[in-house]
Amino acid sequence: MKNIQMVDLIGQYEKIKEGIDEAILNVVKSSQYINGPEVKEFQSELEDYLEVNHVIPCANGTDALQIAMMALGLQPGDEVITANFTYVATVEVIGLLNLTPVLVEVNPTTFNIDPESLEKAITPRTKAIVPVHLYGQCANMEEVMNIAAKHNLFVIEDTAQAIGAEYKFDDGSVKKAGTIGHVGTTSFFPSKNLGCYGDGGAIFTNDLELGKKIKMIANHGQSTQYYHDEIGVNSRLDSIQAAVLRKKLPHLDSYIANRNKAAEYYDKAFENVSWLTIPYRDPKSTHVFHQYTLKTKGINRDELRSYLSKKGIPAMVYYPLPLHKQKAYQDSRYDKVDFTNTEALNASVISLPMHTELTEEELLYITETVKEFK
Known about the structure:
By secondary structure, this protein is α/β, with parallel strands linked by helices. Helix content is 38%, strand content 15%. The chain has 13 helices and 14 strands. It has a 7-stranded mixed sheet, with helices on both faces. A 3-stranded antiparallel sheet has the order 12-13-14. Strands 6-7 form a two-stranded antiparallel sheet. Helix 2 (17-30) packs antiparallel against helix 9 and helix 10 (252-270) packs parallel to helix 13.
């Protein structure tokens, strides 16, 4: 058996090598590296896939969040609410723009933002909500959107881990993650479900005027060349990355299916293991399993991770320290706030290898090895 990878990008590449190599070579031959036809074609194809009116490619997922907030006209001091249990990029851009991050609890079952905690955190200075679709499953977007409408707030979806996931509303309508709020953002970091071979990101919206503004901000605030209507940034998806993404996008649904097949194998293996809790499936959202994340009970999670490493099985902890305890984001506002759910997850979660190339032999070895820990 080959070495087990947390994410097997080599195996994935080898299956589509011919198309990828040709696409990259064509860009090199054309010498249209910036804003070339591949970028425009990818933009159009992703719009079709997501069923959204406007996709604006950019340099990475963090830029996508920043540009979205700039386009919405948020001002220094405005409060932006997001989940405490997430990667730092979600809150990082709030601080960079001199906005005020407000961290709230997550649901201990879904790992996503808790609507009740969200509504309690709203003040007259609150202007936006950033729900994070963590690990590949949508947050409770129906509740989030209802709260946002009630309080006249913007919603910026962080879809970096959930592109391709679908959310079902009570009326039966279905929308793709990232297309529900006022703006959606994503990352094409190589390890993502739809990843390029470098950095990349995109912003989504159904609002024509907002889409125009986002596009301008991402390109130095230009309406036309050398005419700058907005204070902008330089954030572009280059043509080589767009060419790679164009070849991978048609495979995204099959990648999701492969991840779900691996997740189902894990589920079955661990369903009767008393010291593990398998990931919850929200009936209102499909799960694209960017990560397969277990909750441990009554064991030392870090000892389990060390044990697996010695057995040749990589495992990761996303995320070991909550944002409110990170040095950069400590704030006296949180001294008396109860983050019981978040801190329990920080101490108990562990993610197993999850990618499109996992074989049954690898899955058997991983699951049997985990079960042998105790």
